Amino acid sequence: MGTSAHDYTARIFSHPSNTGGRSPVRKPGEYTIELLSRVFSATAIVPQTPSDSPSNDLTKLADSKSSSHVTSDANRSQVNIMNTVWDVRAFQNTTDYYYVQEEADFFYSVNENAQTWLNSAGSDPNHYNQLSSIPGLIDPVPGNTVCTNTTSSSFTWSASGSVGWNQTQGLNASTGGGVSVTKTKALSCPQTIITNQSNPSLSQPGWLYSSPVPNQVQTNIFINQWVWEVPFKSYPSGTQSFTIESGAASKFSDTNFLTSSVILPVPLPFGDTFALQNPTVLSANPNCVLPGSTFAINGTGMYPALVTGVVIGGMPLTASQYSKGSDTLLQVIAPNQPGEAPQPVVVQTALGLSNSNVTIEIPYLFCG
Asked: Which of 142, 163, 231, 271 is deepest in the core (most CB within 10 A)?
């Protein structure tokens, strides 16, 4: 079952005049084109799922939300911050989890003439969310390390039990299987000291990257990962989204800073449904079809992963006679069991049977 990404993007592309000095090896215009390709690509750019991910990987099951922002200074240095978020609702734990992959891109121009180059990135869930308690912060990575050539940002996490998530088709759920995340991203960071400055008490992940000043234009890309844990009871009444703020900065001297930040509202992972529902059939459309024709079952609680069967007039259909569209829609091929009386339509999921008071007419010859 496919997933999709939704981009909420704000970018500033500046073209400052050349302030003199050596020409950069990699022109900022080329970097701008690279950034533009992310904005105008045919499909939203989402970090690829590694091949070692399990089949219940959240990044394969759920839709993601992405947002990014880039700034540049008069010396043509640039800072880009991009967040990609997947979320899931754990019903038994009465908790939502937000898995965040933060990408911080730092582009250094030799025109800076700086003696040091310090980069930083991090996020704060508390500025734009009126939660009644601070979210829990789970496993911010990477940890402290000295990178002489390459290192990795490795993250593993799982939520067990009955869970639910958002998909393009609507809401989906699993009972007992849970979901997990396994992400390993390689980082190229020669002579860089990575310091994890996360503050669990405030639920603020943060990192500092200390690098020698390059003798030529250099781009460093860092990947940070973590999970925020938000109990249901922390949401105010009517909450529709959880807002994530991230920022990144380059420091070239005590008076020369370059910063970029992004704010991303992420819809709650299962909307305003905080418990799995039994299936309910609301209508059959059209309500009269000939055998072999297609009709739709409209309802609620028909989570695709949990649908186990469809029964028409007391007779169960084969799996090839219906397709799982979303939590509110099933497409059905009318069985070859015509009759004069309307036939009850029933949907079965792992949670139980639906109501049986909605009917479909399957006549012998034609619908009147």
From this structure: 163
